[in-house]
Design a protein that fits this description.
Largest sheet: 4 strands, antiparallel
Helix content: 40-55%
Oligomer: single chain
Strand order of the largest sheet: 1-2-3-4
Shape: elongated
CATH topology: PH-domain like
Number of domains: 1
Number of helices: 5
């Protein structure tokens, strides 16, 4: 038997273009805007119907009214909140991540990103920042895999370059004085 040759590891793939704007199709964005308008009309019409019935003396049992309010709350929480937190466009720059949602644009420095999770059982990946969370649709954002690589790479760079807060707090002289005084 001959010697087995050890093959060199293949070179790592080149990093994706960071200036690329990752977005979903415009028609999908239009469908989301239409859905938000329909849900807002549902809120106004259901609660308006409840108020009108009570004003004209056509009362319903309280359990039916509570079911109606529960249905509206369920629709708002399960449909409207994810639609509002879903990212329409993303752009990863050298110093920040720019995310466009349906109603606002967020410029997030890489240091403000707390976590990025992409569970395989969800169609969304979750990007948590210090202030809010954002949902990135894995199936609808073009070149999602490249965006996920860039986000993870930048988060790792920020984590390795940032000094640990526990080491700085243990060497803080004010903190040492306070602990000595309490004993």
């Amino acid at each position: 038997m001959g010697k087995k040759r050890k093959r060199p590891d293949p070179p790592p793939p080149p990093l994706p273009d960071e200036a690329h704007v990752y977005s979903r199709a415009r028609w999908r964005h239009a469908v989301r805007i239409f859905g938000v308008m329909v849900l807002l009309l549902l809120n106004v019409s259901m609660i308006g119907a409840l108020a009108t019935r009570n004003l004209h003396g056509h009362t319903m049992p309280i359990d039916k009214d509570l079911q109606l309010i529960g249905l509206v709350l369920f629709c708002d929480i399960s449909i409207l909140l994810p639609m509002l937190a879903e990212v329409d466009r993303a752009q990863a720059l050298q110093d920040k991540l720019i995310l466009n949602t349906m109603f606002w644009k967020a410029k997030i420095p890489w240091a403000d990103i707390v976590a990025f999770k992409a569970p395989s059982y969800l169609k969304f990946s979750i990007l948590r920042t210090r202030r809010l969370f954002y949902l990135l649709n894995k199936r609808q954002l073009d070149r999602y895999d490249d965006l996920a690589k860039v986000i993870e790479m930048r988060m790792n760079l920020v984590k390795t370059s940032a000094p640990s807060s526990t080491a700085s707090s243990s060497t803080n002289p004010d903190r040492l004085d306070r602990t000595d005084q309490s004993k």
